[in-house]
């Protein structure tokens, strides 16, 4: 019997997993739990997009929230051409895309969340790099449209192609 439950962090506005038996808290789903087991945990409604009666809308289809990580390469035309890595980013949009494609090639065709997170923590120009690129759960209307469309269009574990937004050049991995 699992001691895991889903709780909601008021400071981060994100769900997390809490093990009542050990007192351990983690942001990612605990290893060894299937999707069905996760959906059955106490507090699973905090995860959004679950199958409960309050999930809203008609029968099935698109989730109301997704969780995603990304790797962002900014360029001189980005909305804010600076980052935690570089004060003044001068690369061209084409150079940013080339760098991103190199990172995507390094990941291979079927990267794990951990592999993606490691790459994002080193190379992403977004402050989410501190969390392996994790942006947490978000609903439609919270992200720039091209980013949102790509994230909501991916299966869990799926990796996008190159996505251009006002922030720069992204690759997105849907994690929930």
TrEMBL record:
Positions of the UniProt region annotated as Disordered: 42-94
Molecular functions per Gene Ontology: peptidyl-prolyl cis-trans isomerase activity
Ranges for domain PpiC: 63-176
Gly residues bias locations: 46-62
EC number(s) per entry: 5.2.1.8
PROSITE patterns the UniProt entry points to: PPIC_PPIASE_1, PPIC_PPIASE_2, WW_DOMAIN_2
GO CC entries: cytosol; nucleus
Compositional bias per record (Polar residues), positions renumbered to this chain: 84-94
Residues of the WW domain: 1-32
Gene Ontology biological process terms in this record: positive regulation of transcription initiation by RNA polymerase II
Keywords: Isomerase, Rotamase
UniProt xrefs under InterPro entries: PPIase_dom_sf, PPIase_Pin1, PPIase_PpiC, PPIase_PpiC_CS, WW_dom, WW_dom_sf
Catalytic activity: [protein]-peptidylproline (omega=180) = [protein]-peptidylproline (omega=0)
Domain of life: Eukaryota
Protein name: Peptidyl-prolyl cis-trans isomerase
Species this protein is from: Jaminaea rosea
């Amino acid at each position: 019997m699992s001691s895991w439950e889903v709780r909601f962090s008021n400071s981060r506005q994100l769900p997390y997993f809490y093990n009542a038996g050990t007192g351990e808290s983690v942001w990612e789903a605990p290893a060894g739990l299937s999707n069905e087991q996760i959906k059955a945990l106490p507090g699973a409604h905090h995860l959004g997009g679950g199958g409960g009666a309050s999930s809203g809308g008609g029968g099935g289809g698109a989730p109301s929230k997704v969780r995603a990580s990304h790797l962002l390469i900014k360029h001189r035309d980005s909305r804010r051409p600076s980052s935690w890595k570089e004060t003044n980013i001068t690369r061209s949009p084409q150079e940013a895309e080339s760098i991103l494609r190199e990172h995507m090639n390094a990941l291979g065709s079927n990267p794990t969340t951990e592999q993606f997170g490691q790459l994002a923590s080193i190379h992403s120009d977004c402050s989410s790099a501190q969390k392996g690129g994790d942006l947490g759960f978000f609903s439609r209307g919270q992200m720039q449209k091209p980013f949102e469309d790509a994230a909501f269009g991916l299966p869990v574990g799926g990796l996008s192609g190159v996505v251009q937004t006002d922030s720069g050049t992204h690759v997105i991995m849907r994690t929930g």
